Predict the 3D structure of the following.
Amino acid sequence: MILTVTLNTALDITYRVPALRPHAAHRVSEVTERPGGKGLNVARVLAALGHEVTVTGFAGGATGRVVRERLTGTPGVTDALVPVADATRRTIAVVDDHTGDTTQLNEPGPTITPTEWSAFQQAYEDLLASASAVALCGSLPPGVPVGAYAHLVRSAKAAGVPVLLDTSGEALRRGVAARPDVIKPNADELAELTGSHEPSRATQDARRRGARSVVASLGEAGLLAVTPEGHWRATPPTRLHGNPTGAGDAAVAGLLSGLVEQLPWPDRLARAAALSAASVTAPVAGEFDREVYEELLGRVAVTSEASAA
Amino acid sequence: MILTVTLNTALDITYRVPALRPHAAHRVSEVTERPGGKGLNVARVLAALGHEVTVTGFAGGATGRVVRERLTGTPGVTDALVPVADATRRTIAVVDDHTGDTTQLNEPGPTITPTEWSAFQQAYEDLLASASAVALCGSLPPGVPVGAYAHLVRSAKAAGVPVLLDTSGEALRRGVAARPDVIKPNADELAELTGSHEPSRATQDARRRGARSVVASLGEAGLLAVTPEGHWRATPPTRLHGNPTGAGDAAVAGLLSGLVEQLPWPDRLARAAALSAASVTAPVAGEFDREVYEELLGRVAVTSEASAA
């Protein structure tokens, strides 16, 4: 199975309102709820691609119960979340029917105790024994040490399990130094890591910091990959409009499934770029439009980039 | 015991954010959760005044479980909520730390099935047998007939239990016609019921529509009461600043406790006005500042109004 780790899971709630006006009272016309957090989104896309996925991380409180109930109903996804005392955070996306824009309210995560963090590390080591690959995704909740991902990367490597890291800030900086197989920063995360806003230079710099391969997701500019086997850029043929939340998670699922299936890099990148584009036309993170995906897959342009390294 | 009915209970969530900007992403700095809905607020105030209170209405889903868990921890309040399949609504108050203003997002209530409505009516009849008074509070969730309060008023009267109705719109219009002992509209609800924006005329018109007594809560202008025993205005001595949410619920608790204690109307009104003012300085609905309440109680001016009826 493929293992995804989401230390800061969420109950993602979407509200539709006619128009959001600060300091007014609003009747919410539609409420949707789903398990959230990057690793859970990655897991849903992997499961839709036919892979067996196990999700771990933390879940607690009434919100954690809802997250777990919903996961139980997702075919192909096995729940191995570790229970914690504090409640899983909510995120609220308020969609303005008039403008189509979204206002996001994100609760802080639960505070993880040292005992809970130890319990997670043990569960993670046990799960690695049967994992073909692992993705470490998203932010760290309060209480988890900032070097957490570095530790989890080292455990995966010690167990011989390929590891992809998708996070930001100091957690990414520390994690990269532990030499993960792949990182997938977006443009902002890459610039924050390297200090460079020039993607080609920054991507290569990120490799020098420890990542074996770097796949930067650059929005409309597609994916830029710098790997030991070569450098490529993957660009979807058309610009799609919709909800960009979850596009990066779909790309991670594409890269991870391609890795497990031992596809050559250009095929992995084509899949990741097509999934990413097809997730933009789906209404929520963790889903993609299969018809759009299949139509785009053969039409993603993957071009070899000159190596400057 | 005093019975309060909240057909549309809520999990009231408050978020603090540095500044709310539409279409931006916000980190919530503080999250608080509490049982909500007018009747639950009334119950908490009554319990703080030393009365035994039973709360009924509907609760369902993960949010309903949290509401019930929290109620269990409230001394003096007995939970007799009727379980439903659909989830209790959330309300989200986003408090802007910069301006102090609040933006409110209210989910629609759960849809109540005919079977659930029948189960509630049976539970309500059973509870009336040991009730000294009943308050019917707030909006109707989807599925509950618009004539619901009229029915519940009639049942209370048939059981010989004094009944106070605090709702709005069509539910109030229908409920008044069933001749409740007291209604407590605010200025907007009163105007909507009677078509008149002149409080004295509107209050008397509301009596003619069926209410035995009408106590209008007019914000800074205090309470205006039109009863068979006389007409009064109760005005607190000072204008207090703070959170007006729950001020009406505190007034209902004052009126109801005064009724059960068989206080003369002027004393009931003084208590209701003092509680209402003391709730404005408390941070959340269903609480009041006891020191402010006790200090104000003797200083509320209750004046007899000339009867124009």
Summary: Chain A has a mean pLDDT of 93. The longest strand of chain A covers residues 10-17.
